[in-house]
Amino acid sequence: MSFTNLGLSEPLLKAIKEQGYTVPTPIQQQAIPVVIQKKDILAAAQTGTGKTAGFTLPLLERLYQNKPNMNKYQIRALVLTPTRELAAQVAQSIKVYGKYTPYTSAVVFGGVGISPQLAAIRKGVDIVIATPGRLLDIVGQKGIDFSKLECLILDEADRMLDMGFINDIKKLMKLMPQKRQTLLFSATFSPEIKALASGLLNDPVLVEVARENTTADQISQVVHFVDKMRKKELLSQLIKTKNWKQVLVFTRTKHGANRLTSQLEDSGILAAAIHGNKSQGARTKALADFKDKKIRVLVATDIAARGIDIDQLPHVVNYELPNVPEDYVHRIGRTGRAGKEGEAVSLVCIDEHKLLADIEKFIKSSIKKVEIPAFVPDPNIKAEPIQNGRGGGRSGNQRGSARNTGNSTGASSQRSRSSRSPSATNNTGIRQKQR
Q1: pTM value?
Q2: Which residue range forms the structural domain that includes residue 320?
């Protein structure tokens, strides 16, 4: 099947062709016709399957088919995302694929001044891409009119629930017309997502392109057991001996990301950290340098990495395993995108054996274990409790309470920290023709 069979108009097909894409991914094949038919949709798609283009293309088609809204102050479509990184990615997708259409868009998120964002919306735009917290700030200043809203899209809804945005979303819903098309995209169909969908969607079409809680087949996964105090040494050796040129490394905490970045640089490896405590300018520069291969390693926390799209990123390393199994899937999904092969390496110490078991149970698969003789763990070291990291596991305040904590994963802190610069990359995951 080609894009010409999906009901897209010539201006969109021309933009797709210019990007060198010919074959739609499974999520695009299933979602695009449904959205064009103005039906609500509940879609589960793994990271890297092309879901961003799966809703931006038919959204633009919908607007193209309908008569324009003559009141420039009333937006026609709204995309809500959990982080600034993802908001900017969506905005870039709309810009690229809407190149030959007359529609305008604005992206709004925290971490930067609100005045230019208010000015952009008041000037008149068709589409707004936003994080919930900053959008509520704009609503509070009477800076947006939802009365003519035709389409609402909730992207990565599972992460928005995890980050405590549910109350913000409900407040925004009360301001929107009941008669609208709503699209909900999530990595998994968790019970919480199904409950959210039941209250928002009207007779939705169910789209699921991969088995729930699985990892992409094109990602090679391996575990190296190593003592905690020797992880930095092993990571440096892997990067140097394997000559890795571009590596995204995950830590559980912001402090850990900063510390590892300094240690890598001390060993002669150019690296930068990206997390919620970094300024927007610092995050933008670190990401740009990484994409341009000016640095070899980008060290990130889970929240900061959400929405990062690096074209053909070859390596992801779990320097520390996440406390929440779903985050493992999201992390390694940064590589192996749109049919490309990728490698995910996890450095696991004795403290993390339970986390590894939880992850393997979640993905319904055993991850290959490879022993590195020089780094065989000391059998006399005893496991210690893991105190830091997102959620502290399934117990505690993982869902719905993040806004009341001082943790940067909370939605309140997202208002000032949670987005990526508009210089985001355009890797929407459409499968390219094999040459």
Answers
A1: 0.63
A2: 219-396
